[in-house]
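Question (not urgent): is this output format expected?
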Amino acid sequence: MVRASTIVLDFFINLPAFLIALVIHEYAHGYAAYKLGDNTAKFMGRLTFNPLAHIDLFGTIILPLALIITRAPFVVGWAKPVPVNFLNLRNPRKHMMLVGLAGPLANFLLAGFLYLVLYTGVISSLGLIRFIFNVFLINIVLGAFNLIPVPPLDGSRILLGMLPEKLALKYAAIPQGVGMIILLIILRLIRGIF
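Got this back:
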C-alpha cells in the first residue's frame, strides 16, 4: 500500500508541471481578450506568467491534494479564472468564442512543442524527460477537458457563440451549479471507462 506521505510528495513533485499548464491556459485567455479589446486581465495584473497570480489555494492545491490522499475516483482542480469583460470585446459574441478557445489551444500548442522536444531526443536526462512528459500529458488533458461544452468550462463559451441567438440565451441561463453536477457525472463515467 502506498503511504500518504509518498502520495503527497508525488503531488508536490508534479505540481510545477500542473502549474505550467494552468498558467499557459489562463494567460492565453487574458492575452486573447486583451488583443480583442478587453484590458481587464492586464489592468488586474493577471496578464502574467507568474503562477502566484493564477493559483487558487483551494482549487489548485487543497482540493486536488485532498482527492489524491483520499483516493477519490477522479482528481479535479482549477486556477483563478482570468477576468474578462465580454462587453469590452469588439464583437462580444464572436470574440467570446475566441477567448474561450485560446486556453485549450495554448495547451495543445505547448503539448505539440513538447512532443517535438521529446521526439527529437535532444534531452538525455531521464528526470527531465519524465517532467517534460508530465507537462505534455497535463496540457493534453487540460486542453481537452476544457473543451467539454458544460459551464463553466471553455467549451461552453465556444458553444454559446455557435448557437442561434434564442438557443444561446437559453443555454446561457443554465446555472453553473448544474454544469458542475454534469461535470462530476462525466468525470465519474470517464473514470469508469479507464
